[in-house]
Design brief:
Blueprint (H helix, E strand, L loop, with lengths): L5 H12 L16 H16 L3 E4 L5 E5 L10 E5 L13 H16 L8 E5 L13 H6 L5 H5 L9 H7 L15 E7 L4 H5 L3 E7 L1 E10 L3 E2 L11 H19 L4 E3 L3 E4 L5 E2 L2 E10 L2 H22 L2 E10 L2 E2 L2 H13 L4 E6 L4 H5 L5 E6 L15 H19 L3
Parallel strand pairs: 3-4, 3-5, 5-16, 6-15
Antiparallel strand pairs: 1-2, 2-4, 6-14, 6-16, 7-12, 7-13, 8-11, 9-12, 10-12
Bound molecules: (2S)-amino(hydroxy)ethanoic acid and manganese (II) ion (2 copies).
């Protein structure tokens, strides 16, 4: 059994994790930002130093390609994830998968292995979707789920245009998206949830990933005086908005389903302490592993919004931001992950991914699966995000085994 260079991997995760911190030390590398550029530049430096061919496509996806001798005619095995982050992020989400993929390639090169097919490390643009919706945008374009010109025209939460931002940071590549059609795709990622740690399990063999529905809701009421307006006479957009999050939590609690709902952003206008809000703009993130249940939850939300509009005397409009169906991963790759864990004496379990990942898109065009490692306290999208070095190394070694089985067995 071969092993990756854990010190090199963890050193790079920490170095990349220091790129894009503000004066308070908060890490934020939103897609297309100057901080995103700084992270991208550091990654490209490592990829070039590893002797890989670098390709940047028109949506800014970064590919490090190891062609090897005599295997150019074969479809590549693709590895990867993303290096953009949420706001005030941890250092492992996405970055671990990209750097471990690079580490696996460098380990195989150091061993003098000649793979039977090219191996590619990908860093997809805007996986997080915090500034530009939808999330997984770069991989969605890569698999043909969204036309690149439409993606480049996406307007961010700050009014910026994605294509202009990519050009500004020097990552508006010239390669047509989808130029590399993978033989298979494997993504290593932190679990970002509590299951593996709670069970003392080192490796998650991810067999499916839940569906995602993102909507932006705008509620228009009437601004009025907070002191003089009787409660029964208000058309309070803020109150109407507040009812939505509460309703979703109570509905899901009653339904006893594994669905989750999150109101993650909320903006009031005029946003003044003594003015009844005339407008509320917020987002709703719904997820469920079952497509029918997710559709039913979307319908329940739509009915509730109609009821709130009636009861509160407000106008409500909804804009769809993202909608991805649940995906099932490739059983053979999942089995290869479990076989590697067994050989290495690591406990593993099959599981569903609660988070969205680029693998959700790649599964549309190639056999795909994911490997998870434990997250301390199940925390992610939070600076407290942490995975123990031994767990990081174990996950990367399992990725190495799966890569050797798929791409080096001839
Ligand atoms: O939203 C997600 O699940 C991912 O972090 N983009
Ligand atoms: Mn991620
Ligand atoms: Mn994330």
């Amino acid at each position: 059994m071969h092993s990756i260079n854990a010190e090199r991997l963890i050193g790079r995760i920490r170095e990349l994790g220091d790129i894009g911190r503000d004066a308070e030390g908060r890490l934020t590398r939103l897609a297309g930002s100057a901080n995103d550029k700084a992270g991208r530049d550091r990654l490209v430096g490592w990829v070039e130093a590893a002797g890989l061919e670098v390709a940047i496509d028109r949506i800014g996806n970064i590919f490090g390609i190891w062609r090897g001798e005599g295997n150019a005619g074969h479809a590549p095995l693709m590895l990867g994830s993303h290096i953009d982050t949420v706001i005030n992020a941890g250092i492992y989400d996405g970055c671990y998968g990209v750097l471990a993929a690079l580490e696996v390639i460098e380990t195989l090169k150091d061993l003098g292995v000649t793979p039977a097919r090219p191996i590619v490390v990908a860093a997809f643009t805007n996986e997080e979707g915090v500034r530009f919706a939808p999330d997984m945008l770069g991989s969605l374009v890569h698999v043909g789920g969204l036309a690149v010109d439409a993606a480049l025209a996406t307007i961010g939460t700050d009014g910026a245009v994605l294509g202009e931002e990519l050009a500004r940071i020097g990552y508006a590549g010239n390669v047509e998206p989808g130029h590399l059609q993978p033989h298979a795709y494997v993504e290593l990622h932190i679990e970002q949830g509590p299951v593996l740690e709670r069970e003392g399990t080192a490796i998650g063999a991810v067999e499916n990933l839940q569906g995602i529905s993102w909507q932006r809701v705008t509620i228009d009421g009437v601004a009025n005086h907070a002191g003089t307006t009787p409660m029964a006479m208000r058309r309070d957009a803020g109150l109407a908005a507040a009812r939505v999050g509460l309703f979703l939590r109570e509905h899901i609690a009653r339904s006893n389903a594994p669905s989750v709902a999150t109101v993650g952003t909320m903006r009031y206008e005029p946003d003044a302490i003594n003015v009844i809000p005339s407008r509320a703009v917020f987002t709703v993130d719904l997820r469920d592993p079952d497509e029918e249940r997710l559709q039913a939850l979307e319908a329940v939300l739509a009915d509730f919004l109609a009821r709130v509009a009636e009861e509160e005397g407000v106008e409500i409009s909804v804009e769809r931001l993202a909608r991805f169906q649940p995906v099932v991963f490739d059983p053979a790759i999942v089995a290869a992950i479990e076989a590697s864990a067994r050989t290495r004496g690591l406990k593993s379990r099959r599981m569903t991914s609660g988070a969205g990942h680029d693998a959700q898109m790649l599964a549309r065009i190639a056999p795909t699966a994911m490997i998870f490692v434990p997250s301390r306290d199940g925390i992610s999208h939070n600076p407290r995000e942490h995975t123990e070095p031994d767990d990081l190394a174990a996950g990367a070694n399992v990725l190495l085994d799966v890569v050797e089985r798929i791409a080096c067995s001839g």
